[in-house]
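Continued from yesterday's entry.
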Amino acid sequence: MEGADGLRNSRKRKPYDASVYRSLALITQFGINMVVPIGMMSALGIWLDRGFGTSFWTIVLFFVGAVAGAQNVYRMAKRVYAGTSAEEKSGEASLTEEAQSEETSGHMPSGGIDREEGGGRK
């Protein structure tokens, strides 16, 4: 039973686990966003080639699927990047709001200069 307790304690000591799993999920989503359109369009191309007796639809639709997959990955990366930058901006905004509330409430942060004494700008 000590082994199970040791395993639980080792999991508690690793705060980076969530970010690792989040990153792995993101990488998996990128892969799926590329493979699914390529696979579906290639399958459609094979079906069309067999139905019409041609041999070019598979190649054409493969590239259409690759473009669609790349577009999916680009949109997803853009959304992920916008989410992380929005989180950073919201973090900066909350710090700015805290500083403004300290100024209006009259509480000075440690090491701060009292503006009424002429030490800061107005």
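--- second protein ---
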Amino acid sequence: MKNKTKINKKEGFVALISILIVGAVGLLIASSLLLLGIGFSRTILLSQQANSAMSLADSCIEEALLEIRESEVGNSSGSNSFSSGSCLYNIESTGGEGRIITAKGETEFAKRKVKVIISDINPKILVWSWQEVGDY
């Protein structure tokens, strides 16, 4: 009878250790999935913020183009504020009808810069290039 009691105690100990190991592995997997979800959400938020910053920069470029169209301004600057962020633009004359417009759109977590080169403004504005840049 003593032998049966010892065997049952050993089996109970093995079962308890097995449950603890399975529980720890399950907790590790759940934690990993939670951290991956948080990282994925952050990546999506940053991507949305970057897209918004680019749209803000483009809106300032459009405003600068409108300013050039209305007054054929040579050198000028301006800014706009929106609920999602803000943008700044600068118009620089390169001589004759050439202009360079630079704009920066900013949101809470992202900044984007755009540079537009204009070769002619009369009779129509002729955009030579329009691209996102790292710095002007």
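The radius of gyration is 31 Å. DSSP finds one helix and five strands in the chain. Will compare against the first tomorrow.
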